[in-house]
Input
Amino acid sequence: PTLARLCSTTELHPHPDVATTVIDRRSRLYDSSEREMQLPLREVLILFDLAPVPFAPYSGKSSSNTKLNRMQNDPNRLFDYLKALHIHSKSIEHPAVFTVEESKALRGKIDGAHVKNLFLKDKKSNLFLISALEDTKIDLKTIHDVIGGQGRVSFCSADQLREHLGVEPGSVTPFAVLNDTENRVKAILDERLMAYDIINVHPLVNTMTTSIARDDLVTFMIETGHKPLIIKVGEASKLDD
Output
């Protein structure tokens, strides 16, 4: 796969995190505010001999060419953080998908806006996370002028993705700012995306899609120290453009 494909995705996933496999898969749809279908997070941690995780961003740091700390991209940790903020969300599991067309075919019917995400860096190594509607065409040759970059942007590497956002390639999501404890990443939400009441994104892994209210997503991002810049980043395009 190309680097662009790895770092710019719709909402889906290659390999579930080990902690998520304890989810009772007899039910494919569950509500983050009603977690009786899952082992409590503390029991999951005991099961895997891990320390309890507080309702706070991950405080560690991934090193280059190493796997993520398993709690960085644990959806349960994200759901607990949302619950601590009194934010309601719903999530559904689905097969791994890497293109918009595959996503539409396999994710099923989910109301609201579906998102693609680009994790970019400029010539000065400033980092940008852009979240836009999945049909948005973004011109990488000129987007730096729109988002405040210094020189043209390019896609971040897989190691940079793990280090700064704590997710694997294929699972880029605005929720990943939870792991940017150094506030290196500038979060950007497209104006067209903000026209929708409900937004659907990865919960740190892309075998799941989480539906969250637009205003609640913004609240979450602000709480992590990433007040998003809301601007127009591109135009609607045909999916085969």
User: Anything to note?
Assistant: Residues 1-6, 11-64 have pLDDT under 50 and may be disordered.
